[in-house]
Amino acid sequence: MIEKLFPQSADNQYHGHKLGKWLLMFYTVKSFVAGSIHMFATDGGAQSIASITLDQFSQGAADSVVTIFGLWGMEQVVIGFISAVILWRYKSLIPFMALVYAIEYIGRFASHWYTPGVTTVHTPPGAVADYILVPLTLLMLVLSLRETK
Asked: Is residue 101 in some structural domain?
């Protein structure tokens, strides 16, 4: 398993299940879309999507939250770019990228245990989607490690 996650050399040979690769394509597109929204929306999606009441914050606090959302978006775009390169040129690293996404999504899902949390008007769509996206990352990881003929 370690050799599949961290191959000695990266090439364009993928031996995992086909669905694992398709799931990685889905997460790659999702990274670009969500990251672009967070980077380019005037509020970073903090109020318009996540329902954080920025209008009740001081200007400095609201600007800080928008900046953090923009930086988070940049991180998502960078991970999406790395994932796209792996899908295009280095398919032997698909299990590694599936592990990266699994760590990211599990970490975000579990963040309420190690951060004070965010007060919102309603549950943000990402928090609801994580109930599907977290298990899907684990499925993607398992399928990418599974040897096919």
From this structure: yes
Range of the domain at 130: 13-145
Digitized pLDDT (tens) for each residue of the chain, 149 residues in all: 889 999 999 999 999 999 999 999 999 999 999 999 999 999 999 999 999 999 999 999 999 999 999 999 999 999 999 999 999 999 999 999 999 999 999 998 898 899 988 889 998 888 888 899 999 999 999 999 998 76
Q: Using CA of residue 14, residue 96, residue 133, residue 28, what is the dihedral sign?
A: negative
Domain assignment present for residue 6? The answer is no
Domain contains 128: yes
**31 neighbors 85 (Cβ within 8 angstroms):** no
User: Is the Cα dihedral 112, 118, 122, 124 positive or negative?
Assistant: negative
Question: Which tokens in the block code for residue 3?
Answer: 């050799």
* Burial environment of residue 22 by CB neighbours within 10 A (0 to 12, 13 to 18, 19 or more): exposed
Residue 98 phi, psi (nearest 5): -65, -40
Question: 8 in a domain, yes or no?
Answer: no
Instruction: Please give the model's pTM, rounded to 2 decimal places.
Output: 0.90
